[in-house]
Amino acid sequence: MADFEKGTRSECANDCASCEPVSYDDVKDYYGKKLQKTADLKSNACIAPAQPIPAYIRKALTDVHPYVANRYYGCGLVVPECLEGCRILDLGCGSGRDVYMLSQLVGEKGHITGLDMTEEQLEVARKYIGHHTEKFGFSKPNIDFVQGYIEALKEAGLKENSFDIIISNCVVNLSPDKTKVLREAFRVLKDGGELYFSDIYSSSRLPEEIRTHKVLWGECLGGALWWEDLVRLAEEVGFSPPRLVTASIITVDNKELESLLGDYKFVSATYRLFKIPKTTTKKGCLVVYDGNITGCDKSLEFDCHYVFKVNEVREVDAELASILKNSRFAEEFTFQPDAQTPPSGSCCAPPKAILVNPFELIEQMKSVGTTSATGGCCAAQTSCCK
After folding, report:
1. What are the residues whose beta carbons fall under 8 Å from the beta carbon of 259, sequence distance 6 or more?
2. How large is the angle between the packed helices 178-188 and 227-237, nearest 10 degrees?
3. How many CB atoms are located within 10 Å of the residue 207 CB?
4. Are 83 and 112 in contact (CB under 8 A)?
């Protein structure tokens, strides 16, 4: 395999995996011409892991045209909660499966923008705008598709402070400059906005021979970010510390590619990052989830640490308290006066250390006999209240 063209480095350190040697044309060719359907993938990295899907999301997915869904190459399920009326940006929307799915959930008063650099994928997405608008019963489309690069949202015409939520499904790993992706996402998000994305992460920084392999890059492995670099980059850009939502191991299932990867391990993980004003005072508090979010009438699984049950008093850490108070979730919770200790009958105190390592989360779930690394470690009292 020929090497990728050498890209320029941003101000991050030279050994940082956020800046990779890559050719956009190679990625366009892989996803625009070589991949015509999901079955053309050479590994399972870009195939969503099997996990329970809420009924309202299953219904929304069912309503997406089969031709659009068949050209879906995501590695997770990127459906954050509390979407009605929101403005959402999908980075690397591809054929538009997630755009059409989410357009139903935001409703006619919301709006979804799908951005992709691959003409062939956008051609598929745009072809079915009328079909889905009619199927959803909307008087006019609540979506648009824009051609552009996820590192250059300004050049694509996307204004700063204009989106409530940004999603991305197995695309950030394809970028030659992850730092620019996060900076642009931060720029176009409103205060209190969220970047909710699923992607592939490696157990350590990858060597050049893996990062310059065209097939490994196209299969979302060669450009995988070391999970520790995500934590560092998020802080550098200005996001709140990443909240780990789900994680599942990637087995690759291709002997030729496995031999090239050696001992490096990979996971599919979903994180949520929030743009919280720097002037915000951070202090832990007690909260009660009111149960009014669609699909979460009994409980809200916020991340791998916190599952909020309706009308149950929970103590939250300072970072999460700041997020809940300054984001779209503020109206979904009742905030009680600060207290040093939770009242009688409330859930356990929050974990002393917030877990962000997806590999560690998977190991924890294995140790307690959970097959899917999702649902919140506090969902089971025995896992966090010892």
Report:
1. none
2. 40
3. 10
4. no
Question: Which of 123, 115, 104 is closest to 33 using CA atoms?
Answer: 123
Cα angle 306-101-58, degrees, rounded to a multiple of 5: 65
Q: Are 276 and 322 in contact (CB under 8 A)?
A: yes
Domains belonging to the chain, first-starting first, are 24-274 (3.40.50.150), 285-384 (3.40.5.100)
What is the number of residues in the chain? 386
**Tokens, residue 293:** 């979010």
Tens of each residue's pLDDT in the chain, 386 residues: 333 333 333 333 334 444 455 545 554 454 444 444 444 444 455 555 546 788 999 999 999 999 999 887 766 789 999 999 999 999 999 999 999 999 999 999 999 999 999 999 999 999 999 999 999 999 999 999 999 999 999 999 999 999 999 999 989 998 989 999 999 999 999 999 999 999 999 999 999 999 988 888 888 899 999 999 999 999 999 999 999 999 998 888 888 888 999 999 999 999 999 999 988 788 889 999 999 999 999 999 999 999 999 999 999 999 999 999 999 999 999 998 765 555 555 555 555 578 999 999 999 988 877 645 444 433 333 233 22
| Residue labelled with tokens 């799908």 | 114
pTM of the predicted protein model: 0.84
CA 334 to chain centre: 27
Tokens of residue 215, six digits: 């097939």
